[in-house]
Amino acid sequence: MPVNLLDFDSKQLADFVASVGEKPFRARQLMRWVHHFGESDFERMTDLARSLRAKLAHEALVALPSLLADSTAADGTRKWLLDVGAGNGIETVFIPEANRGTLCVSSQVGCALECAFCSTGRQGFNRNLGVGEIIGQLWWANRALGRDARSDPATGDRIITNIVMMGMGEPLANFDNVVTALRIMLDDNAYGLSRRRVTVSTSGIVPNIDRLREECPVALAVSLHAPNDALRDRLVPINRKWPLAQLLAACKRYVEAAPHDGGTPEAGSLGEKWQRKSSPRDFVTFEYVMLAGVNDQPAHARELLRITDEAPCKFNLIPFNPFPQSGFERSGPDAVRRFQQILLDAGVVATVRRTRGDDIEGACGQLAGKVNDRTRRRERRQTEVRA
Ligand code: SF4
């Protein structure tokens, strides 16, 4: 049975190359062909010996999810629906901005966690994505945005400069596959992204925040959404298992471990450049969806400041994207401004996320894909609504 090369990080690729009797440098060449150049046809990998290409044709393939739909919103946000078999589809979104291009990547088919305000959560859950299905989203997007995997042919600049694991699913519930995919994203022979430009967003799986810190530290975002356990239990049910005190302590540990490269190198030196590339960010981003009359009052902002004063952090306030039967409404602009000002006045960085891609349902919390739900959540919900 041929192996899928998209499933392998550099170490696994080296093991595979050794298993077919080839030298280690062939693994680096293959990594560059598959990821950096976005090539899936071994015959086009022209600097590989003919004999190796023949072996690869028998022993390996580059198997990608196939494209079901490709849509572009008026603001340039682009969304792909990719087929991952058995009636399941996952969504990937590219958000172009003046100084960067961010790809929002999915980690699961649906999500098992059922956050109250989340459209993906409503779809139910089918399974974890494999490494090739996670990294395949980046591979696809690079190809769709411009054939060469890393740069804009006109300017030489990268098209995808940032990755956020904020699509469908809870990344830290699919830990091993997500971490392998992260390693490929960071690999200089593959996509060569810095740890600061790759963000994992979690709803708060505390033990795996600690594992991520140890195994593959990248930028960390936490879906906070409430300043106390009573409200968070309702909005983000995983909070009942790992309440705020545990979550915030894990965030503090994560950030404390971030500047681990030792010392402060001279500005502009090679050491500084290396440190900037190899360190994750030294703060946590708290995501906070603004729900009218639920979590958007000044008292909530002040409570947030109290509970987060020990974790270096910034806040990203997200206007809620309504969807049918969500039961929530978006906070008004005045409420959002007032909330943001309380945080800013306390010296905390707080930004308001611009809503992008609304017209193709590519905005935060709107990704729904096609989920062959194994949890029967949708049926349960419909019964509840009828009752
Ligand atoms: S917010 Fe994230 S963790 Fe919560 S249900 Fe949605 S996808 Fe899952």
Structure summary, number of beta strands: 14
Low-confidence stretches: 261-278
Bound molecules: iron/sulfur cluster
Class derived from helix and strand content: alpha/beta
Global mean pLDDT: 88
Spatial strand sequence of the major β-sheet: 3-4-5-6-9-10-11-12-13-14
Report the helical percentage: 25-40%
Strand content: 15-25%
Number of helices: 13
H and E string? EHHHEEEEEEHEHEHEHEHHHEHEHEH
Largest pleated sheet: 10 strands, mixed
Structural Rg: 21 Å
Indicate the overall shape: globular
Terminal Cα span: 50 Å
Describe this structure in words.
The chain is α/β, with parallel strands linked by helices and 387 residues long. 35% of the residues lie in helices and 17% in strands. It contains 13 helices and 14 strands. It has helices spanning 10-19, 25-36, 50-59, 119-122, 131-145, 175-186, 206-215, 229-235, 244-256, 270-278, 298-307, 333-345, 377-386; strands at 3-4, 60-61, 66-72, 78-83, 89-96, 101-104, 108-110, 125-128, 162-165, 198-202, 219-223, 284-290, 313-319, 350-352. α11 (298-307) packs parallel to α12. Residues 261-278 have low confidence and may be disordered. Bound molecules: iron/sulfur cluster.
